[in-house]
Amino acid sequence: MLFPKKAKYRKWQTGRKNPKKLARHATRGVEISFGSYGLKALGQARITSNQIEASRKVITRTIGKIGKMWIRIFPDRPFTQKAAEVGMGKGKGDPQGYVADVRAGRILFEVDGVPEDVARAALRKAGMKMPIKTKIVAR
Questions:
Q1: Which of 32, 95, 131, 133 is 20 to 30 A distant from 103 in Cα terms?
Q2: What domains can you pick out in the chain, each with its CATH number?
Q3: 91-121: per-residue pLDDT in tens?
Q4: CB within 8 A of 47, min separation 6: which ones?
Q5: Which of 13, 14, 20, 75 lies closest to 44 in space, CA to CA?
Q6: Residue scoring higher pLDDT (19 or 30)
């Protein structure tokens, strides 16, 4: 699983909940930079490090040793959760893991060095592991 080596703050504030403000498209990381094929997010979500790891495993298994893969997102935002049966109040919960904030248009993964059908199959399987709709794009 991915997580930062060091964090300035243990707990972050939750952030915006307004879907109109979250619906804005990403401006960084929206074009394929390294590979020939990429997996693009079509919506906004917080992707956990477990979901990124599951996608990474399925891509590496599908493309084999000859292909190369790049992960274009990193989970650096901590999320907290209260223990079971704890009442309202009593402070904020303990950190449970890390998520990556992803907006629409962001490239999540890139693949190169394999035929188009293999790359599309790998990225399609990886998209199934994501909590948002995705699209396969080519350079």
A1: 95
A2: 30-80+102-138 (3.90.1170.10)
A3: 999 999 999 999 999 999 999 999 999 999 9
A4: 73, 75, 99, 100, 102, 108, 130, 131, 132
A5: 20
A6: 30
Encoded amino acid at 119, one letter: A
Residue 8's Cα: distance from chain center in Å? 21
For 47-64, how does the pLDDT look when each residue is reduced to its tens digit (9 = 90+)?
A: 999 999 999 999 999 999
Structural contact between residues 72 and 135, judged by C-beta atoms closer than 8 angstroms: no
The reported pTM is 0.91
Rg (CA), the chain: 17
Here the tokens at position 70 are: 């790049």
Please give, one letter per residue, the 3-state secondary structure of the chain: CCCCCCCCCCCCCCCCCCHHHHCCCCCCCCCCCCCCEEEEECCCEEEEHHHHHHHHHHHHHHHCCCCEEEECCCCCEEEEECCCCCCCCCCCCEEEEEEEEECCCCEEEEEECCCHHHHHHHHHHHHHCCCCCEEEEEC
